[in-house]
Amino acid sequence: MADPASISCEHLTYSYPGAAPALSGITLEVRAGEYVGVVGPNGGGKSTLVRLLNGLLVADSGHVRVAGFDPAAEPFEVRRRAGVLFQNPDNGLVAPFVEDDVAFGLENLGVERVEMRERVREAIRSVGLTGYERREPHTLSGGEKQRVALAGLLAVGPEILLLDEPTAMLDPAGRGEVLGRVRELRGSRTVLHVTHHLEELFDADRVLVLNGGRLVAAAAPEALFSDADLLRENRLVLPTVPRLASDLGLPFCRTPEELAAAVERRSRDNSGVEAR
Question: Which candidate, 64, 62, 60, places its Cα nearest to that of 29?
Fold first, then answer.
């Protein structure tokens, strides 16, 4: 596991040529083992942040450290410790067979063949794709392709996962497959998860809100998703279940079962009041 601050940014600023700052004075910290979500409207700076953390972009000013390293000066060290899962799984699949794709990063690192086979086998097992080793990636569903990409990251053994809208191009079944595997990694990895789907972050430790290149909020999911003004100001759409709970004047609910239980409790409480 990385140092207590797996990811840290201090006064981080970046502008694309001829455009307003995509990030402006961002200061944040993600501690080892945390699961932190990042949300905000389009153009808020979410994907830019991921690219700065991975060394794909170099900051105009400020400081960034990932596992103690500067991504701009030491990108190889950062990429050994932080893996990125992007939106489109097809962009990350490069080999003719699943097992070859999962082994790709290990081959680039020069991992010995026997160890490589074992790490590939375990990574494929961890994402639920045992038996898919000789399948051709183009024959897989979107969710399966993204799980292959995730297996490729896990085989390398990163302590940090940077998820840049990894379910954006998947159907509900595929989203469930990928998120289920990611949730199993809670605590064993530091996770920074960028998404437009707030329901994907119900169980996050914290959620950061980026808007206009600025960090405008950082809070536990329940507190953030219960703040109607904050959601409206940042064009964030509350998922159906918590929105219904809010409209009914009930506490924050994540699932239909929680909502049904809350409605039942209020009904019993009201019945007791009427009986008295």
Answer: 64
